[in-house]
Amino acid sequence: MNVSIGDVFISTRKNRSTCFHKSIILIIEKTAYSIKGFVINRPIEDKVQSIFNSIESNRNIHLGGDDKYPLSLLNEKEGIKLTESLYLLKDKNKILSFLKSNNNYKLISNVSNWTILEFRTELELGRWYKTEMLNNELFLNSTEAGIDSWDKLNEKFQLDFWKSFIKNLKKAGV
After folding, report:
1. Residues 1-6: contacts with CB within 8 Å, 24+ apart?
2. Which of 44, 90, 112, 160 could be cross-linked to 70 through a Cys-Cys bond (beta carbons 3.0 to 4.6 Å apart)?
3. DSSP-H helix ranges across 7-125
4. Cα distance between residue 117 and residue 168, in whole Å
């Protein structure tokens, strides 16, 4: 399976890893040797205001993974372009400036890392599947997201799978 920056993967029930159980991953970097992604549905107790005192926000910071990575902000307006409508900011001053005038974002700490071989193996073992996630689902406040978003996407994937399966059976005349 081809993996690109901006792709979204959802863990399956076969993924028994404690750090990836019911996780949704957004791929943010890919090289010939490695893949980096944010877990985007793991809010932690820390609030945006705990890092940026001048910002009045009760939104949670999300834990993107176990490895150190600059505090990052996903948004729909500015930064490194991940997809047609999704951007990544890593500079703390630019993040602060963005937070003062925008509220459609997700602030993320840390990152998840795989070698290409590790991720490919996990895909072959059925631990992840590729899905589509709309930006409005991505930016839901953490009180509305988290594990619930995994449940919703998993249900949507299963419905789409069975619709496609039935359509293919009909085409084959079964």
Report:
1. 1/120, 1/123, 1/130, 3/27, 3/30, 3/35, 3/119, 4/30, 5/29, 5/30, 5/82, 5/83, 6/82, 6/83, 6/86
2. 90
3. 48-51, 92-101, 116-124
4. 32
In a domain, 2, yes or no: no
Is there a domain that residue 92 lies in? yes
3-state secondary structure 24-45: EEEEEEECCCEEEEEECCCEEE
Residue 101 lies in a domain: yes
Q: Print the domain residue range for 152.
A: 8-171
| pLDDT single digits (tens) 38-53 | 988 888 888 888 888 8
Distance CA 15, CA 109 (A): 22
Domain CATH for 116: 3.40.1740.10
| 111 pLDDT higher than 60 | yes
pLDDT of 142 reads 46
